[in-house]
UniProtKB/TrEMBL annotation:
It comes from Candidatus Ozemobacter sibiricus. GO terms for cellular component: cytosol. FAD binds at residues 14-19. GO terms for biological process: tRNA methylation; tRNA wobble uridine modification. Its cofactor is FAD. Gene3D superfamilies: FAD/NAD(P)-binding domain (3.50.50.60). It is an enzyme of class 2 (transferase). One of its GO terms (molecular function) is flavin adenine dinucleotide binding. The gene is trmFO. InterPro entries: FAD/NAD-bd_sf, MnmG-rel, MnmG_N, TrmFO. This is Methylenetetrahydrofolate--tRNA-(uracil-5-)-methyltransferase TrmFO.
Length: 442
């Protein structure tokens, strides 16, 4: 066991949300970190900068409401001392009830902190294996490099699962025609609102859907077509949703409910919402418009929306591989590898899904690696908490099919048969009680 006053460094592979959160948890406890990050030398196909903790798609970390699953998880992680969430609140941009950030300012601050920390040795290299010696946290994310994936596949002897995701385009704010749009948040018609809403008439909507379906898509290589069957439903490309019926988008990302166009005083037939993407409010992303159309086609089709006729696209949508491990066989609830307790896995690679969830497992892995270094007992948050429920989900051995999961109230057992809102309130109350007790015992 390393000495408490001169601890050996913990190796962290991957400087994303989970890896940087884990780094923080270690260095704040005086434990040195050797952090491997491969970008920009080796790219991932989705990351665009050389910054740590880059948000690859939406700039939203999900709901900020205390009675929502993601809001509850945030509450727990902040109480636990999450650096990523504290930084997210520091660089928050208006987004209704969601926590959205200026992605550039957010990632810059984290990069500056981590790379500048005296206890961090930053190694700008791709790791193609996990060191046998010392404590290691693997947080290489959904776009883990092929060399590392190969190593993991060989080491664990499991067939890796993977599914596909898609990211949404971003446009310049100045290029949005506000004569054809209005500001409002859903269900709050009285307030000015943070979102820019782009209404469509029935005719405009039907033309949009027809052109969307006709538009050319990027062809996936044959070996990826098989994995495509495992599309993660929460992040389906809009052309895929539209293919299920002409009305499908009006019940999905183009739903008009809760929105009144102040010029007509009526609910539009369909609405595309745009959400602020940076602090300067110079960029907006097309909410829910993940797509796999070829780039020229994306611009052509989205410009059929009246407010976007002159839109300047700064980023276009794309589809990407999204890898995760079969954690129920591999991990303990402390996020250690079952037969290699000096290895921890964190982030999306564990089978959690989402920025906040990845941050949460990074926090837990970093916290436990610190405790292991300091000779303390490792912890797993109680199943009644949101973080604990997520960890139970990814380590539960009885899954028929293990697919990635974000924070949600379905992770909890039936609480005293309470219906609807009462059940949710009971879960939240119990989660808060359990978390307070867990934390007090620490
Ligand atoms: C394209 C895409 C869009 C997504 N959109 C959203 C979204 O809108 N909202 C949401 O909540 N979640 C989204 N996710 C899911 C997920 O929440 C994010 O990917 C999140 O960033 C995962 O955190 P992480 O720390 O596990 O991985 P990442 O943040 O991806 O960090 C992993 C890091 O490891 C590095 N790396 C990989 N392999 C190696 C190696 N061998 N050696 C060294 N470094 C390596 C990578 O360069 C990267 O910096 C998306 C995922 C993808 C891929």
């Amino acid at each position: 066991m390393p000495k408490k006053n001169n601890p050996a460094p913990v190796t962290i592979i991957g400087g994303g949300l989970a890896g940087t959160e884990a780094t923080f948890q270690l260095v704040r406890r005086g434990i040195p970190v050797r952090l491997y990050e491969m970008r920009p030398r080796v790219g991932t196909g989705a990351h665009q900068t050389d910054l740590l903790a880059e948000l690859v798609c939406s700039n939203s970390l999900g709901s900020n409401l205390p009675d929502r699953a993601s809001g509850l998880l945030k509450e727990e992680l902040r109480a636990f001392g999450s650096y990523i969430l504290d930084t997210a609140y520091k660089y928050r941009v208006p987004a209704g009830n969601a926590l959205a950030v200026d992605r550039d300012a957010f990632a810059r601050e984290i990069t500056r902190y981590v790379k500048g920390h005296s206890l961090v040795e930053f190694i700008n290299e791709e790791a193609d294996s996990i060191p046998e010696e010392g404590l290691v946290i693997v947080a290489t994310g959904p776009l883990t490099s092929p060399a590392m994936l190969q190593f993991l596949a060989k080491k664990f002897g499991h067939k890796h699962l993977s599914f596909f995701d898609a990211i949404a385009p971003i446009v310049e704010a100045d290029s949005i025609d506000l004569n054809h749009a209005f500001r409002a948040d859903r269900y709050h018609p009285e307030a000015k609102g943070d979102h820019i809403n782009c209404p469509l008439t029935k005719e405009e909507y039907e033309t949009f859907v027809a052109e969307l379906l006709k538009a050319r898509k990027i062809e996936l290589p044959a070996f990826e077509k098989e994995a495509r069957k495992q599309f993660f439903c929460a992040c389906q490309p809009i052309e895929q949703i539209a293919a299920t019926g002409v009305e499908a988008l009006r019940f999905g990302p183009f739903k008009p409910v809760g929105l009144i166009d102040p010029r007509t005083k009526r609910r539009p037939y369909a609405v595309l919402q745009l959400r602020q993407d940076n602090l300067l409010s110079s960029l907006y992303n097309l909410v829910g418009c993940q797509t796999n159309l070829v780039h020229g086609e994306q611009e052509r089709v989205f410009r059929l929306i009246p407010a976007l006729r002159q839109a300047k696209f700064v980023r276009l949508g794309q589809m990407h591989r999204n890898a995760y491990l079969y954690s129920p066989k591999i991990l303990t609830t402390t996020l250690q590898v079952k037969d290699r307790p000096n290895w921890f896995i964190a982030g999306q690679l564990t089978g959690v899904e989402g920025y906040t969830e990845s941050t949460g497992t990074g926090l837990l892995a970093g916290f436990n690696a610190a405790r292991l270094t300091l000779g303390k007992t490792l912890v797993d948050p109680p199943p009644a908490t949101m973080l604990g429920a997520l960890v139970r989900y990814i380590t539960f051995p009885g899954h028929k099919q293990f697919t990635p999961m974000n924070a949600n109230f379905g992770l909890f057992g039936d609480l005293s048969g309470e219906p609807g809102d009462d059940r949710r309130a009971a879960i939240i109350a119990e989660a808060r009680r359990a978390f307070r007790q867990f934390f007090a015992e620490l």
